[in-house]
Each structure stands twice: as C-alpha cells, then as structure tokens.
Amino acid sequence: MFLRMLKFPVEGLETRAGALHNLSGKSCPWQDKQKKAKSMAADRQNLQDAFLNHVRKTKVPVTIFLINGVKLQGVITWFDNFCVLLRRDGQSQLVYKHAISTIMPAQPINLYDGED
Fold it and tell me: Which residues of 46-76 are buried (b: 16+ CB within 10 A; e: fewer)?
C-alpha cells in the first residue's frame, strides 16, 4: 500500500486491515461508494445467472459455441460460476465458461415479466 512506502508518518491517516481511515474512524468516501455498489449488485440477479437458470428449469435445448469454433448442443442441467453441464443423448459434458463464446437457445425465451 502507498502509505507503507512513505518514510514519514502522514498526519491524520492510518491503516486498519488494509483500508484507509482518518483518525475519526470513518472510512474514506470512495470506499463507501464501493461498498454501496457491491451491495446493490448483490441485490440484483445478474443476467447470466437468470438466463442459465431459465434454460435449465424449462429444459430448453441450447447450442453452445466455443471460442475455438466448436458447436455443442444439448440441455443445460447444472451450472456454477465456472462451468456449465450440458446433457445430450444420455451423455453429460462439463464445459468451462471461459471457453464459451455464445449460448443460443433453440426457442425465444422471456426472462422477465412485464413491459419495460
């Protein structure tokens, strides 16, 4: 951290658990904004999870295009932060998300109710 590199003490500032604080004990304004943004993002379900969960629950067949050009087809049966499990003809394939370019459902899907 920058403050640790300074050879002289900076009056009014100290570090606590890697965070910058003033002597009043309050965190700096930019850290408050970061905390608020993180909590707001956690409240909303992200589009990727909503999409994958919808095609998984409704068992909509999908075509997955990998970044190397390979085309995979099947039904998504499971997913997490790093992988998607694709099932076709009784066989399952574990596909890493970093290898996926595009996921195309076989039919139109509606993720959210209501009109925006």
Answer: eeeeebbebbbeeeeebebeeeeeeebebbb
Number of residues in the chain: 116
Q: What distances in angstroms separate CA 93 from CA 30, 61, 79, 89, 115, one per listed residue? A: 44, 14, 11, 11, 36
pLDDT, one tens digit per residue, over 19-67 is 555 555 566 666 667 776 666 666 566 999 999 999 999 999 999 999 9
Domain that holds residue 25: 6-43
Read off the pTM. 0.61
In a domain, 20, yes or no: yes
